[in-house]
Amino acid sequence: MTNPTDLLHRRYGVDAFNADIPWNETISNLLSHRSIRAYLSDPLPTNTLETLIAAAQSASTSSNLQTWSVVAVQDTTRKEKLSQLANNQAHIRQCPLFLVWLADLARLTYIAENQGLPHEGLNYLEMFLMAAIDATLAAQNAAIAAESLGLGTVYIGALRNRPEAVAEVLNLPPHVVAVFGLCVGYADSSINVEVKPRLPQAAVLHRETYQLETQKQEIELYNQIMKQFYSSQQMNVGGDWSEHSAKRIAFPESLSGRDRLREALNNLGFELR
Questions:
Q1: 193: which DSSP letter?
Q2: What does each C-alpha distance from 41 to 86, 97, 153, 186 come to in angstroms?
Q3: I want to staple 199 with a disulfide (CB 3.0 to 4.6 A). Which of 107, 187, 203, 206 is the partner?
Q4: Are 183 and 113 a contacting pair, CB within 8 Å?
Q5: What's the confidence (pLDDT) of residue 63?
Q6: Residue 113 burial (10 A CB sphere; 0-12, 13-18, 19+)
Q7: How confident is the model at residue 199 (pLDDT cuts 50, 70, 90)?
Q8: Phi and psi at residue 17, to the nearest 5°
Q9: Who contacts 180 (Cβ-Cβ below 8 Å, separation ≥6)?
């Protein structure tokens, strides 16, 4: 189990606070998270997939409706197609297991129709949001489980760039959409990946009420920390974190096709009233 002081320093880029805090192996694993974008071709141990899904299904789910599903993709050709739809990210092709997490309202539609009951509530934005949250909670459980087994992971939000095309590749029925993917596999240790620093706690932790105006100093500190991180990891990122982030939201085209997400969701059967 890694020393708390060391892990906290890596997570925040500075000596953030007193490391004399409650600590165990679970917290150590959580703070050790890194996004892995280079994988070995080594197969996963038998029944790893089933273990990850059991962990995923142990996550909280709103009203026990369980409005999510997942497609496990291991076929080389299908991973190649999904990689192309997600900006040609090579790690989707490399990883031995690619999990596509779905907001799934088709199952409840099916249940209601078999019961001879209406399902108008599924047409509202709340139900899509519930399904997306359910899928996210489940996926994070799976990611934590995978990393506890010595595997690497990285989320792939770019599946939302082409939702209809992804649905076609995965044969998704109406009322189902891929919200993101998750690569799972053994990290290629020849490529050094450090823990990426996060914003100081004072920028995200509000006590009693939200305070936006007090974040300026923390953001300025984080900009300097991230400039050092970009340099140490030889990442081609222009400017600091604030500049990089602002460019990602500057214009509709900055969203890489996701500016038409509502239209795509409508096409896939989500009315979003």
A1: -
A2: 20, 10, 14, 8
A3: 203
A4: no
A5: 97
A6: exposed
A7: very high
A8: -165, 175
A9: 100, 101, 135, 136, 139, 155, 156, 157, 159, 160
